[in-house]
Amino acid sequence: MTGTNPADARERNDCLYRVLVSRIFEPLALYYVESDDSGTPADVRYLDVNPAYERIMGVRREDMIGKTFFEAWSAKESEWRDIIIRVATGGESAWYEGWSVDTNRYLHALAFSPEKGEVAVIFMDKTDWKHAIDALAENETRLIEYRSELRRLAAELSLSEEKTRREIAATLHDHFGYSLAAILHRLQGLDRPDVDGGVRAELSAIAAMLEETIGETRSFTFRISSPSLYLVGLEAAIDSLGEGIFAPVGIRWDFVAAGVAPPLALEVRVLLYQMTRELLFNVLKHAKASKATVRVRHSDDSVCVVVEDDGVGFVRPPEKHWGKWKGLGLFSIRERLHAFGGTIRILSSRGKGTTVILVAPRRADAPPETAAKGARKQ
Questions:
Q1: Which among 77, 163, 296, 351 has most CB atoms closer than 10 A?
Q2: Is 66 helix (H, G, I), strand (E, B) or coil?
Q3: Which of the four pLDDT bands, split at 50, 70 and 90, describes residue 232?
Q4: CA 66, CA 86: separation in Å to the nearest integer?
Q5: How far apart are the first and last CA of the chain?
Q6: What's the CA gap between 301 and 366, in Å, rounded?
Q7: What gap in Å lies between CA 101 and CA 77, rounded to an integer?
Q8: Nearest to 98, CA basis, from 142, 74, 130, 73
């Protein structure tokens, strides 16, 4: 049997190598790492590149072969040279990705050593992918900023609404309330023995109607904006609110306050009162409950309001479907709470009532994590 000529075998291997390299779709470059007398890698020189490398990198093969790395590229590409030396030194393959400044392309590179002192690198051009990822991240950032701005505006709108309510309530109380009281006083002054009996009866009836109107006006004034919220505090305002909502319809009302109550920012006080009011009216309109309870708990950096009822309950939609709760006002509550760094948690199921937990930082300018810490303490 005739032996194989080493020169022929080498030529066939070289031919096979060139065919494989030329037909690889991804850019490929073969390097030789030159070492100094001590065996330390000193330079990287091009042995070969395939057509895909020429096309993607914008170079010609004949201009690359034999050149050192930094004769072909600027010092800004040193990370790519370093990976070649590392693979040649360690003998293990390596993965790297990053921007190529000279070509303005984002590349993934797989480097391996086919023979001692040689390193092959297969590049994958991920520039379009990187641009898409960066654009997505930028859009997500903008979306977060827009949502944050919308939440801030929603919170400001709530405060503006409460300010308007307070102004209307003050006008009703200070102007109309006093005027009605003065009219009643003058009517009562006309009820004298010398006045005709029929007239006195009519005056008495008018006075009774006026007293009822004064009572309704006072009640309406309190429903619009509770003076207790500003004069006494959140607890007194919520207790009075619940009593006024549930006592007339025969629903049992219970209020519990726990913990020391240090000063609470007016914005947070107003926000929690508004939200509690919405939740209590939800209980009245939808829960078919026989009892409603509110508990207020204070901690050093947050305040927690828990609204409970023993009504019909409901199936809690998944987190991504929060918007479907807009009919109950829960989506609006969550967005306004988030604007202040607060949280909302809902526990409910069919026939087992509902518990809604609101947690807000004590200060309107507290960082977002403050309320979350407070929620874990509750």
A1: 296
A2: coil
A3: confident
A4: 20
A5: 89
A6: 9
A7: 7
A8: 130
CA distance 250 to 169: 27
Element of type H or E holding 65: none
Q: What is the dihedral of CA 67, 71, 74, 77, to 10 degrees?
A: 30
Instruction: Give the H or E element holding residue 340.
Output: none
Q: How many alpha carbons fall within 13 Å on the CB side of residue 218? A: 12
Name which of 376, 370, 235 is nearest 302 in CA terms: 370
Please check whether residue 95 is in contact with residue 79, taking contact to mean a CB–CB distance below 8 angstroms.
no
Report pLDDT digits (tens) over 336-369.
Answer: 788 778 899 999 888 889 999 999 998 765 544 4
pTM of the model: 0.53
The model's confidence at residue 7, banded by pLDDT at 50, 70 and 90, is low
155 contact partners, CB below 8 Å, separation of at least 6: 267, 271, 336, 339, 340
> What DSSP line would sit under 207-265, residue for residue?
HHHHHHHHHHHHHHHHHHS-HHHHHT-HHHHHHHHHHHHHGGGT-EEEEEEES------
Q: How many CB atoms lie within 10 A of CB 92?
A: 10
Contact 33, 117 (CB under 8 A): yes
CA 338 – CA 340 distance, rounded (Å): 5
